[in-house]
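Let's do one together. I've listed all components of the complex below, 468 residues spread over four lines.
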Amino acid sequence: MGKTLNQESKWELSRKVAVFKNSEIFNHLPSYALEEIAARTILVRFKKDSKIFMDGDKSEFFYIVDSGLIKLFKGSSTGKNVVFSISTNGDTLNGSALSIDSHFLTAQAITDVTTLRLEKEVFFIFLHKYPDIAVQIIKKLAQRLTIEYQKIVDITGEEVEQRIIHSLYTLSSKLGPILNIKREELGEFSGTTTETTIRVLSKLKKKGIISSASTRGKIIISNMDELQSLSYHM
Amino acid sequence: MGKTLNQESKWELSRKVAVFKNSEIFNHLPSYALEEIAARTILVRFKKDSKIFMDGDKSEFFYIVDSGLIKLFKGSSTGKNVVFSISTNGDTLNGSALSIDSHFLTAQAITDVTTLRLEKEVFFIFLHKYPDIAVQIIKKLAQRLTIEYQKIVDITGEEVEQRIIHSLYTLSSKLGPILNIKREELGEFSGTTTETTIRVLSKLKKKGIISSASTRGKIIISNMDELQSLSYHM
DNA sequence: CGTCTAATTGAGATGTGTCAAGCGGTGTGG
DNA sequence: CCACACCGCTTGACACATCTCAATTAGACG
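Okay, and this is what the predicted structure of the assembly comes out as:
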């Protein structure tokens, strides 16, 4: 329920540039370009649980994440949410949505979050000035699309246990062995219910793959190798 | 089981240009650009059931469809295929895959098909020469991504009957009321089995939404308005 | 006319969702 | 600083939508 903190502090340009250097979409650009872009951003912080933007909102800004975790999900009236990704350092929130008028997904802070924000119009100016950005965005979008294709294949073809294992592997590959997410969120990421998720986690706990120290809002992977080998389907 | 016909016939340039004019990705470009690009394409025909490219193949060409139906799907060892889209006139087969080294999906001709084909390298040259193409591709990719997001939401939240209705509506909006696809393919497009698909179709036939003249490899929508109203979920 | 593939229908098995109840940790307010 | 209240976690029992397996019918094509 935290409110959005919209305060802008005076970060040095070099620190902003570092955030862009950390992003796949921008890290191929020459330094002068990065500085030019970074100079046009403002720092925006979000409190845990606050929304960065919501499903249906007009898309006005481009965000790049400096720190914290953000979940991108689609809410539904029936309460059946679907989580599509957990974003962190260097990720861009909506390289895609910008070309569409309004957001399809909701972005919500899972922890306190720091972002750099750019006006949509300014972003498009740079997109034309440095065509390489467009190429990188296409690449990124294509990757994301592949991930979602695979997710659909998994949901229709794999059993829940397999899907949750796969989710755990995907998430821990990106975020490390300690996942600061709720069971509910893992379920929504895997396309199943909280209860089923918990039952699978209990099994994995018995097998020693996740730690019994995993508590409220936290899942700890204790055997990454075993998780990886189990996660290979086919 | 048809073999690929690789014969190139001497189409007039103007006819090739017309194909590009019919495509969302290219139709904003000036005529001289379209002629320049069209001149570099060759005509490639495919027999019904033949594969244009397969999952795992190196991506070497860019295709734009002139006529016929092509299904893009991901095959699986368990026989649980998933159909992601049915492409037709003006559609590009793989604006996305080109930025990735190899294809994630298989493209197979459902009917006899005519395409124009461009070398991947040549395509990239034009991508840099006419940045507007990149912008259009980003838009297209973003749309596709949204479609797949929605599909995941549907598969996890909606009942099969609803999903099939939604599939029928989507397909007939694009292809018209006569769908030249098999029950099996509709099932794979809806994320369910052939048998379940047939059972739902039987119900819809009773309701008069699809015609009882629907035969082998063909589904005829007889009440588009009713289908549309049913297809709205929530 | 025979063969092959698609469509159809039935009956049974089962993975997951749903509903309900209880526990435990954590933070907040008195 | 303690106690209460809330929220996430956990487990159990049950229901049922959908898949699976199997057998039959029907249409297309050579």
